[in-house]
Design a protein that fits this description.
This protein is 27% helix and 29% strand. The chain is of the alpha/beta class and 154 residues long. The protein has a single domain (13-150), classed as Glutaredoxin. The strands form 3 sheets. The protein has a 5-stranded mixed sheet with strand order 5-4-3-8-9. Strand 4, helix 3 (74-84) and strand 5 form a beta-alpha-beta unit. The protein starts with 12 loop residues before the first strand and ends with a helix. The relative contact order is 0.25.
């Protein structure tokens, strides 16, 4: 189950594309678009990432940063970022601890087969480190516009 509104965003430190480390609380003072997605270089995840890429000027103009998180490795993130010219941070969650902390690692079902996976979810974290918006069961079409519309609103 996703985290609720107006609660502190769980802090984390992890590796990102390029093998750098990121710590969430170091972005305090900015809006953070924290989006969880299942896997690099898959059709829907690529469409979502490219939508963020194509709207990055609109997002940064509102004082926000984008961080995409999946269970993929640094190497996979580097390839994904390079293949599609992604202009935002891709964070690694190989042990799924961040996904679990945010309530997005859960049982899924496809064609009657049950498995554990990432629920496509986006959180907006306000400059105080509090969750201001939660987008669950994200459909890619129109999602980035909805995220941009919510930036800066309570």
């Amino acid at each position: 189950m996703a985290l609720t509104l107006h609660t502190p965003a769980p802090d984390f430190t992890t590796l990102t594309d390029g093998g750098r480390k990121i710590t969430l609380h170091k972005y305090k003072g900015k809006y953070i678009v924290l989006y969880f997605y299942p896997k690099d270089n898959t059709e829907t995840c690529t469409k979502q990432a490219c939508a963020f890429r194509d709207n990055m000027k609109r997002i940064t103009k509102l004082g926000a940063v984008v961080i995409g998180i999946s269970p993929d490795t640094v190497k996979k993130h580097d390839k994904f970022k390079s293949d599609y010219g992604l202009n935002f941070i891709l964070a690694c969650d190989e042990d799924k601890s961040i996904c679990e902390a945010y309530g997005v690692w859960a049982e899924k079902s496809m064609y009657g087969r049950k498995y554990m996976g990432v629920l496509r979810t986006t959180y907006i974290i306000d400059p105080t480190g509090t969750i201001s918006h939660v987008f669950e069961n994200v459909k890619v079409a129109g999602h980035v516009d909805a995220v941009i519309a919510s930036l800066g609103t309570p």
